[in-house]
């Protein structure tokens, strides 16, 4: 292993403070020896990744991020435990993808496999919401709510708790792997693995009844798939949030690339206002601020960055817009008595406006946002209408194909139909099955004595009732008919008061066997 | 020729020290990820050999059974036992009620239909066709023509004991081979064929058919009845309907009269469990022609 180590030092955007020496940036502010190790210019092919040790930031956006961290994690862990009555013979879990029972439950909504398009609609809705949010506020998804960000943040909390903040971690990383470093490393990884396991184990709660599967899981009585997926999620959580971190966003995730097409010059993005900050450099207390920028080159924005970049280099693919550099910079600006917002959410257009001496303004209503907004409204409306008028009765008719018809000894022709009456309701209901399109026919139903030309059946809650029917047409009717007669099979719900409830109709044909 | 590894200045990697026709080779190490997976695989293989059946041909014990005593064959047996246990309750109630009662119980009917359908596919469909559509020599089970009766109990009896199967209870009938055994002459058989064609409503030679009436009355009507409607008790087919087990052509009918037919259906009493036969009877009855 004689991989040549390059000693190339890439200094981006300003001077790099000397090693060891605590460089002075401004009164009371020390420049941090932080490098943007993950920026495109300093990344090298075939070189090992340089560990990033983000410093803890304090400020408004950090507070928002804490709030979202706990809110999203709470939703993830608590949601499967919420109970909801879905009727008899159905699980009472509010959110459940019941693969064994082939149902998807979401509070008051219960979807059958053939209604999977509602989930497609939900995904489209999610996608367009993401597009809209991205067009307006840039990578808010990446910075605040992406599971990769949330869990990485959580893992860094653990790291900070065990090993200390940035400086302590850097110091520790330089020690040999024994004694204190070994103990701390082991503790950190054990806690990470525990969190990962809880994450993976919570995932399976969405696919099984939570109060049942939890004890079964620990008693070794859960199905193999539960252990498999808990294991996979444990592994991915540990490796993605603990070990790989910013590499997931930089190398693995397609979303940063896609977003390039979703943002434009009116999109709010975490921006370093170069016009205000440059020329940058250390500042002495007595010096005037005239003729220089507000950036004192303290490198704190680089030190807090979990992605290992320098925001002062401009918009970058690596930047997840977590806004922690805003918090860091605003803190510094307050200390040195300069206005905050050197790094802030701003648009490309506003920077141009500033150059032209115009006033900044936000342009929220644009062709792009109108399109996304109206698509969200349209699809949302379709979903609401679809779900609220969704039929609780469904009907499938399968005509026998082997054979297509049977000739009886007196020359009559018989066709067989499997009528599937699907009762999606939560109660047993009565239905009447009738045929139209034929005259002078007789029917026979397996398991039922039929006197007339209609069949009365009952279907239990959440049941597909299979009714095998035979329809016979006498020879006299056959000779005047063609090779097939179009028919329709009608099902109508019989309510207790004698009225008709829901109805469904299905088209089919009667094969006569004539050429 | 050098035989000392040299440091290659360009890549920073040592050479192997060998030279072939002026070509030297870098001794590039294996990728770490590959190497570690290789090591993990070796460790895994050792663990696997300890816990799972591995070494064959050990003296005295055949093969090493592993600490887990894992056996796919045993697993299948356990799974089959589980299946039987899961079916036990329904199978029990299926055999304890009369077959007529099954159709009144939707759950039991569903069970019987499902079990019957799969048993039919495994055992019966080879001859009777899928869904009982039948073929030449093998009766269709979905029409309303039954040689030996089409109600539930009659179907069950046929399945249980078979036809000409050699079982004491089996249905048995034998039509004489009028031609082969020289009971009738060739021309007499030809005339009889025309008569049978006439009974079935097919094109025929009327004068030949008329000539055959005496022979029909003497030889055939004992079993097939004077009007040719057959006799279920003897398993004699109805000759005047439009269904023909061995085909209704002149040639097929001549062959039947000359050499007779002797279709055999095996007895299933020994091969299938009573509840499987019950479910088969229900299923066949439900194919459309059940009486």
The first-to-last residue Cα distance of chain A is: 81 Å
Could you tell me the strand content of chain B as a percent range?
Answer: under 5%
Q: Fraction of residues of chain B in helices?
A: 40-55%
- CATH fold-type name of the domain at 74-170 and 265-285 in chain B: Cytochrome Bc1 Complex, Chain D, domain 2
Would you tell me the structural class of the helices and strands of chain B? mainly alpha
Calculate Rg of chain A over CA atoms: 33 Å
What is the class of the domain at 74-170 and 265-285 in chain B in the CATH system?
Answer: Mainly Alpha
Strand order, largest beta sheet of chain B: 1-2
CATH architecture annotation name of the domain at 74-170 and 265-285 in chain B: Orthogonal Bundle
Number of helices of chain B: 10
Largest sheet of chain A: 5 strands, antiparallel
Describe the structure.
The complex is a heterodimer of chains A (515) and B (291). By secondary structure, chain A is α+β, with helices and mostly antiparallel strands. Chain A has helices spanning 60-78, 117-137, 140-145, 147-163, 166-174, 179-204, 210-218, 224-244, 246-252, 255-259, 274-277, 300-303, 324-335, 348-355, 367-388, 475-479, and strands at residues 24-26, 29-30, 95-98, 103-106, 109-111, 269-272, 343-346, 393-399, 406-407, 413-423, 429-436, 442-445, 455-459, 463-473, 484-494, 500-511. Chain A has 3 domains: 23-52 and 263-359, no CATH class; 57-259, no CATH class; 393-511, Immunoglobulins (Immunoglobulin-like, Sandwich). Chain A contains 16 helices and 16 strands. In chain A, the strands form 5 sheets. In chain A, strands 8, 9, 10, 12 and 14 form a 5-stranded antiparallel sheet that branches. In chain A, strands 13-11-15-16 form a 4-stranded antiparallel sheet, with no helix packed on it. Residues 1-21 of chain A have low confidence and may be disordered. Chain B is mainly alpha-helical. Among the domains of chain B are: 74-170 and 265-285, Cytochrome c-like domain (Cytochrome Bc1 Complex, Chain D, domain 2, Orthogonal Bundle), CATH 1.10.760; 186-259, Cytochrome c-like domain (Cytochrome Bc1 Complex, Chain D, domain 2, Orthogonal Bundle), CATH 1.10.760. Chain B is 47% helix and 3% strand. In chain B, a hairpin with a 2-residue loop joins strand 1 (15-20) and strand 2 (23-26). Chain B starts with 14 loop residues before the first strand and ends in a 6-residue tail after the last helix. The chains are: A alpha+beta (515), B mainly alpha (291). The A-B interface holds A 1-4, 400, 402-403, 406-411, 414, 416, 444, 446-448, 466, 468, 470 and B 7, 12-14, 29, 103-104, 106, 109-110, 113, 130-131, 133, 140, 142-145, 238, 241-243, 286, 288-289.
């Amino acid at each position: 292993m004689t991989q040549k180590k390059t000693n190339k030092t890439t200094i981006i955007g300003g001077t790099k403070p000397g090693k060891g020496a605590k460089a002075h940036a401004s009164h009371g502010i020390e420049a941090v020896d932080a490098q943007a190790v993950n920026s495109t210019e300093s990344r090298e092919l075939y070189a090992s990744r340089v560990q990033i040790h983000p410093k803890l930031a304090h400020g408004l956006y950090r507070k928002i991020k804490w709030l979202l961290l706990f809110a999203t994690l709470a939703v993830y862990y608590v949601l499967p435990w919420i109970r909801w009555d879905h009727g008899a013979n159905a699980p009472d879990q509010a959110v459940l993808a019941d693969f064994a029972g082939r149902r998807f439950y979401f509070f008051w909504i219960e979807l059958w496999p053939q209604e999977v398009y509602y989930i497609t609609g939900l995904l489209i809705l999610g996608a367009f919401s993401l597009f809209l949010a991205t067009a307006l506020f840039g990578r808010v998804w990446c910075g605040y709510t992406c599971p990769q960000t949330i869990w990485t943040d959580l893992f860094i909390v653990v790291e900070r708790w065990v090993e200390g903040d940035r400086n302590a971690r850097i110091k520790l990383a330089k020690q040999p792997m024994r004694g204190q470093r070994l103990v701390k490393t082991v503790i950190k990884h054990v806690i990470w693995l525990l969190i990962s396991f809880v994450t993976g184990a919570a995932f399976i709660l969405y696919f099984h009844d939570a109060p049942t599967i939890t004890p079964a899981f620990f008693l070794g009585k859960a199905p193999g798939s539960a252990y498999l997926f808990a294991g996979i999620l444990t592994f991915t959580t540990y490796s993605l949030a603990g070990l790989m971190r910013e590499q997931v966003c930089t190398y693995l995730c397609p979303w940063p690339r896609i977003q390039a097409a979703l943002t434009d010059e009116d999109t709010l993005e975490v921006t370093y206002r170069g016009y205000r900050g440059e020329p940058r450099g250390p500042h002495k207390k007595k010096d005037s601020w005239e003729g220089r920028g507000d950036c004192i080159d303290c490198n704190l924005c680089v030190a807090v960055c979990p992605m290992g970049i320098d925001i002062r280099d401009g918009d970058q693919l690596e930047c997840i817009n977590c806004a922690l550099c805003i918090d860091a910079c605003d803190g510094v600006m307050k200390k040195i008595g300069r206005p905050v917002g050197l790094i802030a959410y701003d648009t490309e257009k506003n920077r141009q406006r500033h150059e032209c001496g115009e006033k900044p303004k936000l342009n929220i209503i644009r062709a792009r946002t109108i399109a996304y907004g109206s698509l969200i409204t349209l699809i949302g409306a379709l979903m609401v209408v679809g779900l609220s008028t969704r039929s609780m009765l469904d009907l499938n008719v399968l005509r026998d194909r082997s054979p297509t018809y049977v000739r009886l000894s007196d020359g009559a022709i018989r066709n067989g139909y499997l009528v599937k009456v699907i009762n999606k309701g939560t109660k047993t209901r009565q239905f009447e099955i009738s045929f139209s399109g034929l005259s002078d026919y007789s029917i026979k139903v397996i398991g039922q004595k039929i006197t007339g030309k209609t069949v009365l059946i009952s279907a239990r809650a959440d049941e597909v009732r299979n009714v095998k029917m035979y329809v016979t047409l006498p020879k006299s009717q056959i000779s005047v008919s063609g090779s097939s007669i179009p028919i329709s099979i009608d099902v109508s719900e019989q309510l207790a008061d004698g009225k008709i409830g829901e109805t469904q109709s299905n088209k089919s044909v009667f094969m006569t066997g004539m050429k | 020729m050098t035989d000392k590894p040299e440091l290659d200045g360009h890549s920073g990697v040592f050479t192997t020290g060998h030279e072939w026709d002026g070509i030297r080779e870098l001794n590039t190490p294996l990728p770490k990820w590959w190497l570690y997976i290789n090591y993990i695989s070796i460790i895994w293989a050792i663990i696997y050999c300890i816990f799972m059946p591995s070494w064959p041909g050990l003296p005295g014990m055949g093969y090493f059974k592993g600490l887990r005593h894992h056996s796919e064959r045993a697993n299948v047996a356990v799974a089959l036992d589980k299946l039987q246990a899961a079916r036990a309750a329904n199978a029990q109630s299926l055999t304890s009620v009369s077959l007529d009662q099954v159709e009144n119980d939707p759950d039991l009917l569903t069970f019987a239909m499902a079990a019957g359908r799969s048993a039919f596919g495994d055992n019966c469909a080879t001859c009777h066709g899928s869904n009982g559509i039948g073929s030449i020599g093998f009766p269709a089970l979905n029409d309303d023509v039954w040689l030996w009766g089409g109600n539930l109990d009659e179907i069950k009896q046929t399945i249980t004991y078979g036809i000409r199967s050699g079982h004491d209870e089996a249905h048995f009938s034998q039509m004489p081979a009028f031609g082969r055994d020289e009971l009738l002459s060739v021309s007499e058989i030809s005339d009889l064929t025309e008569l049978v064609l006439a009974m079935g409503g097919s094109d025929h030679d009327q004068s030949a058919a008329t000539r055959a009436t005496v022979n029909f009355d003497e030889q055939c009507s004992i079993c097939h009845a004077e009007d040719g409607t057959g006799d279920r008790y003897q398993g004699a087919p109805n000759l005047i309907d439009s269904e023909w087990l061995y085909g209704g052509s002149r040639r097929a009918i001549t062959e039947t009269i000359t050499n007779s037919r002797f279709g055999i259906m095996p007895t299933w009493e020994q091969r299938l469990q009573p509840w499987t036969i019950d479910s088969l009877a229900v299923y066949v009855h439900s194919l459309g022609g059940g009486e």
